[in-house]
Amino acid sequence: MAEESITTTLPTPQNQPPSELTTPDESKPTLEVSARETETAVTTSTPETETAAEKPEVAAEDHQPPKVTETAVTTSTPEEETAEVTPEEHQPPKVTETETASTEKKELGNEKSQQEEETARIPQNLGSFKEESSNLSDLSDSEKKSLNELKHLVRDALDNHQFGSVPKPEDAASAPEEVTIWGVPLLKDDRSDVVLLKFLRARDFKVKDSLTMLKNTIKWRRDFKIDELVDEDLVDDLDKVVFMHGHDREGHPVCYNVYGEFQNKELYNKTFSDEEKRKHFLRTRIQFLERSIRKLDFSSGGVSTIFQINDMKNSPGLGKKELRSATKQAVQLLQDNYPEFVFKQAFINVPWWYLLFYTVIGPFMTPRSKSKLVFAGPSRSAETLFKYISPEQVPVQYGGLSVDPCDCNPDFSLDDPASEVTVKPGTKQTVEIIIYEKCEIVWEIRVIGWEVSYKAEFVPEEKDAYTVVVQKPRKMKPADEPVLTQSFKVNELGKVLLTVDNPTSKKKKLVYRFNVKPL
């Protein structure tokens, strides 16, 4: 990113709001510096800076990373002022989140906010839903009885070759049939029990109905040549339409379906213009699903379901008959042959027309199916996803911090946790990171939709040292880059202050994370 020159004026008491973070430092002089947004290694050439650079350094043997805690502060009474922290060996960064009044002119909002309007129009989570345990020891007595009955029927079916597989010539006629589904051989170990449980739950533990569904599924898999399909090298231009990315807070892999990609007429015609293309589309989707399922854990207590996210932004809608036909066929195949593989179905960026569609199909859905559905309009999509998925696991385009695997992020990975803060209307939120060692600190920060002012500073612990402006106050617009990545080399004890000022009448979601690299 382009380097921008930073100039700043020392804040005065009359225009500085009371805060336990800012009050002790008002007497500190402020140093004007230049900073890069992507790599903020601050250097100076003023005499004052040279003096500051000569201050005593932290002993190398202490090696204390910053310590992290979270607090909310609204007043600045003496009792609440931040106490000095005595460095201890290997102490992590300490993070304090402080809320004060906004210093910018607050926007008036007399009408309902967009979020309130969406809440009134769009159904939210349609009931509580707790995923059934895949731990065999958690089954009730009646469920265990149904499972044992189904296993007995499956054993009889295998012994009598009722699943329809053709035995090899060298096999004896009396040898039992061997059937594998999703990489799990039936009746070989506990993984088979978890598979059978899916069919039982799909048929409300009606044993005979479950066996019929299992037989039909195995027959369809043989006719569709699923095992061969998994290993085929199919040409697929739909990597941006359907993809797996990260896990939710409970460990479920997350699958994204981005229907807006089909607004591209070339891609749409290439995928749906004739029957052969629609068949190819179906085969690629089945292959993608099969490969994803085989990565699940079918052991007792393992994660064997997927979190589905459906992005409805710019979706072609119900008017595209080819898409509607292909979707209907795919949904029917999934219902008949892939039971109980969806943990939740989240619909985000939901448009008005989808409400009409839901009004039609809603009455025909079971309460249990409805309870798995989650809906969110455009302004609430990121907030809704964060209820189920940590921000570091959510792709950048959906409000999180995770970049595409094809892109490179040398500073952070999916394993680096992020923190969330709600910035209330007309307030200012300051994140204080206390540093206990010489290091380079790197952070990522974003506010969903921005429309806020953001600044970053380093305040040395030494009383008469200069406050270093890492990022001068910048009004961030919705069109600005979604995530800012900045860094600062710390040569003395002190704290980094990240401040977000929200002058709007809407609450904002602040997401940030940081890493420390000892020098």
From TrEMBL:
Gene3D superfamilies: CRAL-TRIO lipid binding domain, GOLD domain. Residues 382-516 form the GOLD domain. Keywords: Acetylation, Cell cycle, Cell division, Cytoplasm, Isopeptide bond, Lipid-binding, Membrane, Phosphoprotein, Transport, Ubl conjugation. Pfam families: CRAL_TRIO, CRAL_TRIO_N, GOLD_PATL1_C. Transmembrane segments: none annotated. PROSITE patterns: CRAL_TRIO (PS50191), GOLD (PS50866). Its main location: cytoplasm. It is found in: Cytoplasm; Membrane. SMART domains: CRAL_TRIO_N, SEC14. Residues 40-50 have a biased composition (Low complexity). It comes from the Eukaryota. Belongs to the patellin family. This is Patellin-3. It comes from Brassica carinata (Ethiopian mustard).
